[in-house]
Amino acid sequence: MTRYGSLAELNRDLVGCRRCPRLVAWREEVARQKRAAFRDQEYWGRPVPGFGDPAGRLLVVGLAPAAHGANRTGRMFTGDRSGDWLYRALHTAGFASQPTASHADDGLELSGAYIAAPVHCAPPANRPTPSERDACSHWFVEEVRLAAPAVIVCLGQFGYVQALRALAALGRDLPRPRVRFGHGVEVPIPGGPTLLCSYHVSQQNTFTGKLTEAMLDAVFARARELLGNPRNGG
Predict the structure, then answer these.
(1) How many angstroms separate the CA atoms of 217 and 85, rounded?
(2) Angle, in degrees to the nearest 10, between helices 7-14 and 130-147
(3) What is the pLDDT of residues 30-43, one digit of tens each?
(4) pLDDT tens profile 194-226
(5) 20-34, 57-71, 187-201, 218-232: segment of lowest average pLDDT
């Protein structure tokens, strides 16, 4: 596995990755076909790099780019309703300069937080295969190493399991037995970060009320507490 000197260096290589044929074909087909509402826009259609403050002590881990969200805009959680929820919560907690994320040049900046995903290409039906997940894992492990977070907010069970796998690959001793995923669950890693679990900000969860704004705000408020400084990026 290549060892990078910075997240910016890693991202320069990541955006050119073509390792997974199915994902390459899908992301590029979506970028050509487009959704009618975005037919006049140029889609990104490549692996989506991480986004945020490279010195931030909070790492937010999702699943993969959305076909007409980040795969269109080229920035994590940007241009879809999941991102609306996430960035509003990050803004409320003082990690984001604004509560909305519509496109890559909208002026949004993160302070004290960085967003990554275990899979960097949009997968069909939002479901990467195990082989695709594993093929992308070297990027994610490097992101976790370089970010060196004190707190990792895991959006969904997939993000939680992959965060644990990345920490194990970096030589961290994980709790045994594995702590079961659940919203609000905290998992301190000996000598490493604390993992905070949240239901994913998917429309399936937010539309049904499984995840509410108050629940999401509580997770990021707890992240602030663990970081030890309430409003300046940790």
Answers:
(1) 10
(2) 160
(3) 999 999 999 999 99
(4) 999 999 999 999 999 999 999 999 999 999 999
(5) 218-232
Q: Which two tokens stand for residue 93?
A: 């907690």
Q: Are 61 and 141 in contact (CB under 8 A)?
A: no
List CB contacts of 128: < 8 A, sequence separation 6 or more.
Answer: 23, 64, 119, 136
109 phi and psi, to 5 degrees?
A: -135, 145
Calpha distance 23→121 (Å, rounded): 6
Taking alpha carbons only, the member of 147, 140, 143, 117 closest to residue 234 is 147
Nearest to 105 by CA among 74, 83, 82: 74
Q: Give the total residue count for the chain.
A: 234
| Residues whose CB is less than 8 angstroms from the CB of residue 77 and which lie 6 or more positions away in sequence, other chains included | 51, 62, 69, 70, 83, 86, 87, 101, 115, 201
And the tokens for 103? Answer: 């496109």
Q: What are phi and psi of 142, to 5 degrees?
A: -65, -40
Host H or E run for residue 197: strand 194-198
Nearest CA to 88 among 220, 210, 204, 231?
220
> What sign has the CA pseudo-torsion 76, 82, 84, 88?
negative
Q: What is the pTM of this model?
A: 0.95
